[in-house]
Specification:
four-stranded antiparallel sheet, single chain
Length: 69
Amino acid sequence: MNLADTRDRRIRIGECVLQVRGETRPCTIMEEQLTGLRDALDPNWRGGVFCTVLSDARIQVGDAVSWED
């Protein structure tokens, strides 16, 4: 799932709905674990995103993941 520039978009994971609030930037701890990891995760929001929960539900392995637009 491409997360780049998805601020304010909604993601559905099973019955749970989340709203993307911003990018989780790669940090120096990642680089300490594996040289080059920080640079590899930096482009296109590959370090992940942080979200607000809009509709809480249990997320389980195998749940469908999709954009709600």
